[in-house]
Design a protein that fits this description.
By secondary structure, the protein is of the alpha+beta class. The protein has three helices and six strands; from the N terminus they run αββββββαα. Helix content is about 45%, strand content about 20%.
Length: about 160
């Protein structure tokens, strides 16, 4: 028996199927913070499908590729294909996806932490100016120290006499 949530023609962010998917993910313990369903129909390996992109509270992303029949054609978890056993029963498939998210959460968080993020080109940091100011201050201190050493050396021969 098929337990399908999607209808290909009515698939949108405001459709009842999209709301049900969010609700089922929440029941399984994964909170959806953002969902997007592009209107573009795609084709791959002879299969016509539409995508539903879901972003969760822990920054993990799931893309559901839904065929014209309403079946889930493919699931991408954080950009990688995730095999699903229960393609015919979407509620069980959602439980499988949440289990995969839970098992890979620590590894995904480590990858996020290790990723270096560069600030946008328009944003300037104070570090170059701070470095320049500290360099000027250092050079002024070196000159003051050199001046004190000269005064000491000028007084040393007078004190010896």
């Amino acid at each position: 028996m098929k337990n399908l949530l999607f209808t290909f023609a009515d698939l949108s962010a405001k459709s009842t199927a999209a709301k049900q998917v969010v609700r089922y993910f929440a029941r399984a313990g994964a909170n959806v913070v953002q969902q997007d369903i592009p209107s573009a129909v795609k084709r791959s390996s002879g299969v016509t499908y539409r995508e539903m992109d879901l972003t969760f509270a822990d920054s993990q992303q799931v893309t559901l590729r839904i065929k014209q029949t309403g079946d889930i054609f493919q699931v991408l978890l954080n950009g990688k294909a995730l095999p699903i056993k229960d393609q015919e029963d979407h509620v069980k498939a959602i439980a499988e996806i949440v289990q995969a998210m839970d098992s890979g959460r620590s590894r995904y968080q480590k990858l996020l932490a290790a990723a270096k993020v560069r600030p946008p080109a328009g944003i300037r940091t104070a570090a170059p100016r701070m470095e320049q100011a500290l360099t000027v201050k250092r050079d002024a201190l070196k000159a003051a120290i050199e001046n004190v050493h000269e005064q000491i050396s000028a007084l040393a021969p007078a004190a010896a006499a």
